[in-house]
Amino acid sequence: MRAVDCVGALVRDAEHRVYLQRRTAERRLLPGIWDIVGGHLEPGETPEEALAREVEEETGWKVRDVVWTVADWEWEWEGRVRREVDYLVTVDGDLTRPRLEAGKHDLSTWAGPDDLDLLMVNRTDGDRRLRDLVAHAVRTRFTDRLRLEPITGPNGVLPGHAPDLQRIFADPWVARWYDGTLSPDQAAQRAADHQAGWERDKAGKWIAYDRTTGELAGRGGLSRIPSGTPTAEAIAALVGPEWAADRLELGWALLESARGRGLATELGRAGLDYAFSTLRASSVIAFTEQVNTASEAVMKRLGMEYAGEIRAEGWAPGVPDVQPDAPFAVYVVDREVRSQEVEQVVDDAVRWAAGRPDIRGVAIVGSWARDAARLTSDVDLVVLTDSPSAYLESDEWLGAFGAVAVVGRQQWGPHVTEVRIQRASGLEVEVDVTATAWAATEPVDPGTRRVVTDGLRILHDPEQLVARLVRACGPQADI
After folding, report:
1. What is each CA distance from 272 to 150, 221, 250, 281, 388, in whole angstroms?
2. Fold (topology level) of 355-477
3. What are the recorded GO MF terms, alphabetically (predicted)?
4. 388 and 417 in contact (C-beta within 8 Å)?
5. Residues pairing with 66 in the sheet
6. CATH topology of domain 6-138
7. What is the CB neighbour count within 10 angstroms for residue 112?
8. Cβ–Cβ under 8 Å, residues 476 and 453
9. What radius of gyration, in Å, describes the C-alpha atoms of the chain?
10. Which of 27, 206, 355, 465 shows the greatest Cβ crowding within 10 Å of its Cβ?
11. Alpha-carbon span 60 to 421, nearest angstrom
12. Cα–Cα distances in angstroms (integers) from residue 16 to residues 89, 277, 278, 303, in the given order
């Protein structure tokens, strides 16, 4: 294989946008186009060394971590073929203030899903490969255990996902629900259709890989149900006209080897986050045959609510063949329903605390406190008490917060124990049980200050302990 000639760095911000910089009009190679950070290797450099050097020279940032090798491809300029390897990286530095390299770049910006055609400005050769590379990075998501890549066909930069689709649909469990497998040609067409869907709808399905091993896990994500179809009309009649504006459906299909570990829920949460945070959707549905109780259970864990039944082609109870009018269960989730549930949690916390003299304060913190929560965000509560051990030795009191399961515990510093619970809807609530020393003001603990300044709303504070803490953390904490 040809040696690596050049490297590229795909730097993303918190909104998953990719950093771009415009090459000056005086550059001999591709003047005036928008480009990613990167350049050629110097003699004796490894690709990783060149990557770190180019990032610092062109932006002033320092590479913290190479998250993923996104692409390894070749391109030609003036008769010379170059091999390029592009990496998704995290960096240290102020992302709002890149330092452009004088004489090489004159503007910078962050490209999201609506900005991809910027990569074609002044691109006189019409080459879309850099645009497709950036689109891939913009659309990719990571969960705790999965890397989710938007499904593509081969496009000159990426090899495409047809072989993975063929393997997924060859899995007996998946083939059972989709009534068959895919031939190589069918898988290739399916991959191309998925890529076209991403371009057309700004949403689509991902291929899911294990983040640690790289092993294939399945596929899932979003799609837009075509308007005017019987399925779309039947669903809109159940869930209301707001859904019909976006027509977003959430789905998943995992290999047998990946099932039973909560990965479908993890994938589903990523899809909901993309729908509500990136696409700004109003609602999302999921539907499955009523005999598919495993998928229904995932929908419930995602906090989706049963909306009713439609009829479509699929599997029906007690019948060995696919039926034209099988019963399907439809589930829906929207912002208003989730916000109402969070307020219910808040009200329950206030009522619970009011009857307990040993509870010295309760506050909601984090994204829900500062009105920046995503639909998939959990609720973070801080409970100040004179006797934290009494609440850590028994779980009975968690019923007041709607707990149906305790899904985790963790100690944070000397005072705080996190108890993470799940409600019947799938919403997770993190209750941080802490001694009143957490709210000490002389001095304020640095960890406490970070929590308070990140967003805090007082729910129960009979002795003004939390109010004094907020004031001690400065005016920026008075949220």
Report:
1. 15, 8, 8, 9, 35
2. Beta Polymerase; domain 2 (3.30.460)
3. acyltransferase activity, transferring groups other than amino-acyl groups; hydrolase activity; nucleotidyltransferase activity
4. yes
5. 89
6. Nucleoside Triphosphate Pyrophosphohydrolase (3.90.79)
7. 16
8. yes
9. 26
10. 206
11. 43
12. 12, 11, 9, 24
Query: What b/e readout covers 332-368, taking b as 16+ CB neighbours within 10 angstroms?
Result: bbbeeebeebbeebbeebeebbeeeeebbbbbbbbbb
- Per the listing, tokens 């047809």 go with 162
In the chain, what is the straight-line distance between the N-terminal and C-terminal CA atoms, in Å?
57
Q: Which residue type occupies 17?
A: R
225 vs 450: CA distance, rounded Å: 43
CB hemisphere CA count around 12 (13 angstroms): 23
Please state, in angstroms and rounded to a whole number, the distance separating the CA atoms of residues 41 and 27. Answer: 18
According to the model, what pLDDT value does residue 163 have?
97
Asked if the domains at 146-335 and 355-477 fall in one CATH topology, the answer is no
Rounded (to 5) percent helix, strand, coil in the chain: 35, 35, 35
CA distance 458 to 384: 12
Residue 431: Cβ-neighbour burial (10 angstroms; 0-12, 13-18, 19+) = buried
The length of the chain in residues reads 479
Query: How much is the pTM?
Result: 0.81
Cα-Cα-Cα-Cα dihedral sign, residues 342, 345, 351, 355: negative
Element (H, E) at 450: helix 446-453
- DSSP β-bridge partners for residue 92: 62
Domain ranges of the chain: 6-138, 146-335, 355-477
- Beta carbons of 108 and 21 less than 8 angstroms apart: yes
Q: What are phi and psi of 127, to 5 degrees?
A: -70, 120
pLDDT 10s per residue in the chain (479 long)?
789 999 999 999 989 999 999 999 999 888 999 999 999 999 999 999 999 999 999 999 999 999 999 999 999 988 899 999 999 999 999 999 999 999 999 999 999 999 999 999 999 999 999 999 999 999 999 999 999 999 999 988 999 999 999 999 999 989 988 878 999 999 999 999 999 999 999 999 999 999 999 999 999 999 999 999 999 999 999 998 889 999 999 999 999 999 999 999 999 999 998 998 899 898 999 999 999 999 999 999 888 889 999 999 998 988 888 899 999 999 999 877 778 889 999 999 999 999 899 999 999 999 999 888 877 788 999 999 988 988 888 888 999 998 888 988 998 877 889 999 988 777 889 999 999 999 999 899 898 999 999 999 999 999 999 999 999 997 544 43
The two three-digit tokens of residue 213, written as one number: 């091993």
What's the CA angle centered on 443, arms 438 and 449, to 5 degrees?
55
